[in-house]
Amino acid sequence: MALAGVLGYPVGHSRSPAMMNAAFLECGLDWNYVKLPVPPALFAETVRALPASGYAGVNVTIPHKLAAFELADEASPAAEAIGAANTLSFANGRIRAENTDAGGLLEALEEPVAGRRALVLGAGGAGRAAAWALREAGAEVSVWNRTPRRAAALAEELGITHAAAPGPTEVLVNATSIGLTPALEEDEALAALGLAGTPPPETVVDLVYGERPTPLWTWASRGDGRVVGGLEVLVRQGALSFELWTGQPAPVDAMRHAVSPSGA
Ligand code: NAP
């Protein structure tokens, strides 16, 4: 049996084990994917011990994405450019870093973005990956952030535009943590994101997901355009990790079913 898992702190809430084990089962692979709650102080030594314990690779989540990139012996162009990794692969005594959050977003979009205006809300880790992915795919990307200097720094680094306030766009990506707190009402969420009184654009991606529809999802669903939820992005980044580790196409439908609120 091969092992894989997700390192985070905390990681108890993660839906990745259900999703990835459903994928292994669907493909008839004798793999097991586990939660690995690891505090930052133990991250490096834990990762280095994993290959000898039978692990082929791991996902990493908050707060380890930067540390994962720094620990790796080699990195993909995406991980290198974003400066963070959500996937590590162990082979031939080496640790390789990849960032499938970027590719996962583009796969979840399922539509070309080249030449279209894209606005990323948030300049944290997810915002960084989203902005880089959209720019690589040819979109005209701008980034807005609650703390403007972070957006300005990211915009300068990636050669994209810093939006002082959210303006008209064709593709909107929420990469802030707004919506994680269930108590937040839709009008409060829209106000916090500078979207109060604006209609939803053609395509909205809300990276945030939870037990209930997020405020941004509810707002976007009233428009005429497409809405892509955070669970779909989770599935697509997981599918890319699966393919890296196993070399096989990922069973995306089985993974989607495992994380859907009515599935599992
Ligand atoms: P992070 O690095 O901590 O960044 C948080 C971002 O949210 C920052 O831009 C922050 O702005 C902003 N923010 C926080 N509170 C805010 C508020 N009250 N009003 C406006 N902006 C606020 O987190 P992250 O790793 O980028 O993750 C962001 C979200 O994306 C999380 O909800 C995470 O679960 C989700 N995510 C989903 C997937 C997926 O596969 N679906 C993958 C990755 C991340 P400041 O700079 O001003 O603090």
Task: Describe this structure as you would to a colleague.
The structure is a single chain. Helix content is 39%, strand content 21%. The chain is an alpha/beta fold. The protein folds into 2 domains: 127 residues, Rossmann fold, CATH 3.40.50; 123 residues, NAD(P)-binding Rossmann-like Domain (Rossmann fold, 3-Layer(aba) Sandwich). The strands form 2 sheets. The chain has a 6-stranded mixed sheet with strand order 2-1-3-5-6-4, sandwiched between helices. Strands 9-8-7-10-11-12 form a 6-stranded parallel sheet, with helices on both faces. Strand 10, helix 8 and strand 11 form a beta-alpha-beta unit. Helix 1 packs antiparallel against helix 11, helix 5 packs across helix 6 and helix 8 packs across helix 9. It is globular, with a radius of gyration of 18 Å. The structure holds NADP nicotinamide-adenine-dinucleotide phosphate (NAP). NADP nicotinamide-adenine-dinucleotide phosphate (NAP) binds next to helix 6 and helix 10.
